[in-house]
Amino acid sequence: MAMAVTPSISLQQITGLVLAGGRGARMGHVDKGLQLFRGKPLAAHVIERLAGQTGTLAINANRHQSDYAAFNLPVWPDLLPDFPGPLAGLHSGLTHCATDYLAAAPCDSPLLPMDLVAKLAAALSLQQADAAIAVTGRAGQTDLQRHPVFCLLRKTLLPSLTGFLQEDGRKMERWFAGIHTVEVHFDDETAFCNINTLQELRQLESE
Ligand SMILES: Nc1nc2c(ncn2[C@@H]2O[C@H](COP(=O)(O)OP(=O)(O)OP(=O)(O)O)[C@@H](O)[C@H]2O)c(=O)[nH]1
Ligand SMILES: [Mg+2]
To answer: What pTM was computed for the model?
Structure first.
């Protein structure tokens, strides 16, 4: 009997996207990705961690675009008005990327796993899924946490996402529930810590 062969995904087929397109309302409407954490902008931490995990990188930002351009990466704004949420960033990424896959991570999680993309890609490929998202905690337990802003998407999902957004869908979880998504478990919960307020920024900085 012939063995089923699952083609694996190479790094060169993946564009990494730093999601920095939000309003930062809980931080006083500052541009979160540009706030300093341990002496460097939050976005710089994410760029450094993602570099090497994907073939190319880009930034999704809607404000201070010249500041983001200083990272020497393409800056892709949302194509939809009024800050409809992170899905708008994924929509921009899938529209612009020239690769078969897009891996996204938010600008406000400076400790993201160094094996994020490799693990998402391995699971997506093995399950022949269209999307992979990160999960922490133990399956079946109440502390299971889904982290859909840390995701890997096939570029072929663009029409699905466009349709979802056109119908005013904003909830990431709802879009992922309607497509073939695989959940990928990560042991290190702290790698996904996410900074929403200035207090959280200072707190994590001092840890
Ligand atoms: N492109 C895009 N990204 C967004 C939008 N809203 C949030 N994000 C991104 O989604 C990720 C998680 O969002 P939040 O933690 O809520 O960040 P935020 O929306 O800037 O902050 P709050 O305004 O305080 O909710 C971050 O990477 C944000 O940059 C949006 O309207 N467009
Ligand atoms: Mg928000």
So the answer is: 0.96
